[in-house]
Every structure is written in C-alpha cells, then in structure tokens.
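**User:** I keep going back and forth on a fold encoding question. It is easy to fool oneself when nobody else works the same problem. Could you pick a protein and write out its sequence and tokenised fold? Could you put it straight underneath, so I can go through it closely?

**Assistant:**
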Amino acid sequence: MFSVGDYIIYGNSGVCKVMSVGPLDDSDDREYYTLKPIYIRDSTILTPIDNDRVVMREVMTKEEAQEFIKGIKNIGTLDILDERKIDHDYKRALLTCDPSEIVKTIKTIYFRTEERQAEGKKATASDSKYFHIAEENLYGELAISLDMDKDEVRDYIKLSV
C-alpha cells in the first residue's frame, strides 16, 4: 500500500503523487487513492487501492535509477514478429510500465527510424507517437527518481551510458 506523499507509476498516466488514501465518503468501505499526475496538468485520478487492472508501482529510487541507466546499453529491442501488428507490440510493452520494456520500445523505434531515413523515408506516424509516449514515461520517472528536470534526463542518460 502506498502512503500520502509517495510518487508512484499509475499505468500510462505516468508518475503520480499520492494525495490521499481512504474511503470516498463515510458510507463507503472501499479505500481509494487520490492521485495527482505530475505531468498532466489539472488532472486528478481516483482509483481503488486494490485496483489490479492498472499497473501501480513505486517510482525507482535514486540508486535504482542510476543502476538502471548504467544497464541501458545491455537492453535489447522488442521482438517484432509481424510488422502488421507492431502497434500492438508497442502498446503491450508500454502497458507493462516496466522501464526495460520502455527502453526496448525506444530502441526498436529508433533503429526502425534510422533504417527508414537511410531509405529516404520519414518515420511512420505510429512510430513517432509511441516513441514520444515511451520517452515521456521513461524520462518522467527518471526525473522524479533523480530529482532533476525531465528535459535534462535525456542528456544525463547519454552521458551515463
């Protein structure tokens, strides 16, 4: 169970701060988290604490984030078996909220885009969309863990890898 003030990952909403924990009203026996997404302005999420339909996990600690970044170079790419289902593979990887799967997605799209550019083509709209989502999710968590601005995380990773 998370406590007030904790930073957690809540599905594709990314990093959220736990604002309160408890029933919605006096007649409700069920407890809820009130979450404030850090990177989505003017948004609040109410979710049961026993919600098992959306991934909820603690944000990495600073030490975990630093170790994770050191290991990024050893993370591979997604196994794409069917090009026609690539969107499904991207969604599946991102829904895990697993930083390693997110890095795999970023690397897969990066290499696909490089190949397309070498052929004189642009990145697909789908690749661009999922690349942006993956970066936002990864950099958002690392920014909180490392206590830095999200925009600084990309450069920090480049220097650390």
Remarks:
- Residues 125-146 form the longest helix (22 residues).
- Residues 77 and 104 are 4 Å apart (CA to CA).
